[in-house]
Specification:
Number of helices: 8
Strand content: 15-25%
Helix content: 25-40%
Order of helices and strands: HHHHEEEEEHEHHEEEEH
Radius of gyration: 18 Å
Number of strands: 10
Strand order of the largest sheet: 7-8-9-10
Length: 243
């Protein structure tokens, strides 16, 4: 990436900064070249996404502060494949999904790929404001940046293991950082994930023994779903911090 000048100031950016979204690398979606809601079929390579982000202004200095960018995850996926010599899908299954018993979790790899088995359907408004089913997704626009399909039960298993220190050595866990605490006087962290038509949050206590997971389907633009997130937080507080 540095040799081909695909990432501005690549030589100053660390893997930890990619993980913590403090690299300053802009999000490839900000280029305006991609339709993440309704383009189910165009097959983009990870390099296509990185190249698109190169044309967008940086969000800040390397290491300066948090600025979410899907490009960080794309680069991390490329690093995994470079280091291991195997596909990201294979490594996620071998190192995470299989050992944790996440039997209903997988990384989509080929567009268009739908959700396997019975599932809820999310909807997203088209240009006319009409909700359209988006239970398929373009795997090439997701991939390392959100292409994993999972269930509430499997997400619980992942965050329980992470908070209990069963996934990483202590030094690596510290480098990755914990999910941001927010509920129950800071003793419960919330990890949220969303895509067009879907929003899910996993709430986990510091010791991983108490959890509350909510998965919702939407029929509105995700950017208008703040009240849904507020309701999910209130439900979690009722369950996990009754005092």
């Amino acid at each position: 990436m540095a040799q081909e000048d695909l990432v501005e100031r690549a030589g100053e950016i660390t893997v930890q900064q990619l993980i913590r979204h403090s690299s300053g690398i802009p999000d490839f979606f900000a280029s305006g070249k991609f339709d993440d809601a309704f383009d189910f079929t165009t097959d983009y390579s990870p390099i296509d996404l990185v190249k698109a982000s190169r044309k967008v202004s940086r969000t800040g200095e390397p290491g300066a502060g948090f600025a979410y960018s899907n490009t960080n995850y794309v680069l991390l996926g490329l690093i995994v494949e470079k280091v291991t010599g195997r596909s990201l899908a294979a490594e996620l299954t071998r190192r995470l999904f299989a050992p944790l018993g996440m039997k209903h979790t997988y990384l989509t790899t080929k567009p268009p790929q739908g959700i396997k088995g019975p599932h809820g359907h999310g909807y997203y408004p088209d240009a006319k404001g009409e909700p359209r089913d988006v239970d398929r997704q373009n795997a090439s626009l997701g991939g390392a940046a959100g292409g994993v399909v999972s269930t509430s039960g499997d997400l619980s298993a992942f965050y329980r293991a992470f908070n209990q220190g069963r996934l990483l050595p202590a030094d690596l866990q510290k480098a990755v950082g914990q999910p941001r605490p927010g509920l129950c006087d800071g003793t419960v962290a919330a990890a949220a994930g969303s895509g067009p038509g879907f929003l899910a949050v996993t709430y986990t206590s510091e010791d991983g023994r108490r959890q509350f997971v909510v998965s919702t389907t939407l029929k509105i633009d995700n950017r208008q779903a703040m009240p849904v997130g507020d309701a999910m937080n209130k439900a979690a507080e009722t369950v996990l911090c009754p005092s």
